[in-house]
């Protein structure tokens, strides 16, 4: 385990597979972690309950859930304006920006994380964006992460006073299978995580939305059965 001399990190934790893996990475590298989750008007808001359980499992006592309402902007299947698309197979995934994109979501989340980093005196913000598997989201690209870091270091009191901030996306260039393998090695219990965009009333995954398809393929490529509960 790398030791970071009690260096502090803010981790965006949705309760999903990717962000839970990032939390495990931060803890394994010795960071003092503040976890930050959001109820933003998403249909699958139960993910914040999972985030709470996952934070506790990794011994993170500093976990804040913030309520905002991105549904007021509409234009996303995740906040209820459109139906969540279902696919028959991975080849059916479009390279276009998907309807599950939430306008400016990562920028809004990172802005909150930036403020939290200021008050917690954290030098790192970590998030689980990925540019390989289903990389149609504009706010998951490497150039986006780099640009936000540059902006953050122009916009904050701590940075101006010489305490620069790093935006770290450790999963950026990993496939879903590689992410799962990394998380398993770090002790992530993926049965606690949720990925589905359209779960039923019992929070069982649909198995056919894009997020489910990517997740299932990742476990299959690791020769594992996904421990999530499906409809």
Could you explain the architecture of this structure?
By secondary structure, this protein is α/β, with parallel strands linked by helices. It has one domain: 3-Layer(aba) Sandwich (Rossmann fold). It has seven helices and five strands; from the N terminus they run βαβαβαβααβαα. It has helices spanning about 15-30, 45-55, 105-120, 140-155, 155-160, 175-185, 210-220; strands spanning about 10, 30-40, 60-65, 125, 165-170. It is globular and about 55 Å long. The mean pLDDT is about 90.
Topology:
Blueprint: E1 8-12, H1 17-28, E2 32-39, H2 47-57, E3 62-67, H3 105-120, E4 124-126, H4 142-155, H5 157-160, E5 166-168, H6 176-185, H7 210-221
Parallel strand pairs: 1-2, 1-4, 2-3, 4-5
Notable traits:
single chain, 231 residues, alpha/beta, Rossmann fold, five-stranded parallel beta sheet, 34% helix, 11% strand
The fraction of residues assigned to DSSP E strands is 5-15%
Distance between the termini: 38 Å
Strand arrangement across the biggest beta sheet:
3-2-1-4-5
Q: Write the element-wise H/E pattern from the N-terminal end onward.
A: EHEHEHEHHEHH
Radius of gyration: 17 Å
Oligomer: single chain
Shape: globular
Under CATH, the homologous superfamily reads HUPs
CATH class term: Alpha Beta
Q: In total, how many domains does the architecture comprise?
A: 1
Could you name the CATH topology?
A: Rossmann fold
The largest β sheet comes out as: 5 strands, parallel
The helical percent reads: 25-40%
CATH-scheme architecture: 3-Layer(aba) Sandwich
- Structural class by helix and strand composition: alpha/beta
